């Protein structure tokens, strides 16, 4: 047999064998009858023997064609799977885009960027894994992801780091709070408030602690949790106030949580991490652009915070 297998030729041959005519095969494959005849002719040249004899206005398969058809039917499911796999690989390098993201990034940034991306490339599969920052090193060492999203700084050499956004944290208040009309909240304003805090050993906790220490203000720390979303749920329930990053806080505005600028400003940097050992496919580049555009939108919306 000369040359490589041609799946279009195999499809044409298979459907002529099933239907007994080139016209029926053409209708099934949504191509013209001359196109089917041309594929069969090229397939005969490829296998180097005659496949059909025309007799009485109909095509009759040769014994060689019968034997070939039986062989093709045994392997055909695998051939179609291979064809689909090759198409997926052409689109994504692996058929799947794998995203890892720390909790703040999955609140609004990731969903809104994925919505834009899905409208552009609806056939692409996506996996989103939420991690805590201490797990980043393991993921970066393994390089088993396509896009990472985290609060900066990240000092690991196994990632190309792309800054995404620089955003001030906001003070979140429950509905009807006494400070709800204040244009800006200061550390002193929160001195006698029940404060719901993110857990220690996080960038946000260290920055908040630093500001209150420098201002000489003691907080009434009532509750600690590792989740910004849990903090906002508790604020909405009237359990206290807090300071959180914008991605999470903005997702709770429709639940009655009040967002206020906080001074002195606590600014967090957010970035995208790209594995140094994995080339970027066209689909990954498209998703990167969607994330960058959405992050820029957050910077514009919260510029006055």
UniProtKB/TrEMBL annotation:
The keyword Magnesium does not apply. The keyword Cell inner membrane does not apply. Residues 5-62 form the HTH lysR-type domain. One of its GO terms (molecular function) is sequence-specific DNA binding. Pfam families: HTH_1, LysR_substrate. Belongs to the LysR transcriptional regulatory family. This is LysR family transcriptional regulator.
């Amino acid at each position: 047999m000369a040359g490589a297998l041609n799946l279009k030729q195999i499809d044409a041959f298979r459907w002529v064998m099933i239907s007994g005519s080139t016209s029926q095969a053409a209708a099934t494959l949504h191509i013209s009858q001359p196109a089917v005849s041309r594929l069969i002719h090229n397939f005969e040249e490829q296998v180097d023997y005659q496949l059909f004899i025309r007799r009485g206005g109909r095509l009759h398969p040769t014994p060689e064609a019968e034997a070939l058809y039986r062989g093709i039917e045994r392997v055909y499911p695998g051939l179609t799977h291979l064809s689909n796999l090759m198409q997926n690989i052409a689109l994504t390098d692996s058929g799947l885009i794998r995203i890892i993201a720390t909790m703040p990034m999955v609140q609004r940034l990731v969903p809104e960027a994925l919505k834009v991306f899905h409208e552009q490339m609806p056939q692409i599969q996506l996996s989103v894994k939420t991690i805590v920052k201490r797990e980043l090193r393991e993921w970066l060492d393994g390089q088993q992801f396509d896009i990472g999203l985290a609060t900066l700084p990240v000092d690991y050499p196994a990632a190309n780091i792309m800054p995404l956004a620089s955003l001030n944290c906001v003070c979140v208040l429950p509905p009807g709070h006494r400070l709800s009309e204040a244009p800006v909240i200061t550390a002193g304003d929160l001195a006698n408030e029940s404060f719901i805090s993110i857990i220690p050993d996080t960038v946000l906790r260290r920055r908040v602690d630093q500001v209150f220490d420098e201002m000489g203000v003691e907080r009434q720390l009532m509750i600690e949790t590792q989740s910004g979303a849990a903090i906002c749920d508790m604020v909405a329930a009237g359990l206290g106030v807090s300071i959180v990053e914008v991605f999470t806080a903005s997702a709770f505005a429709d639940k009655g949580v009040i967002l206020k600028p906080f001074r002195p400003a606590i600014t967090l940097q957010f970035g995208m991490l790209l594995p140094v050992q994995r080339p970027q496919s066209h689909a990954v580049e498209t998703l990167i652009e969607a994330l960058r555009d959405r992050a820029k939108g957050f910077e514009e919306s919260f510029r006055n915070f």
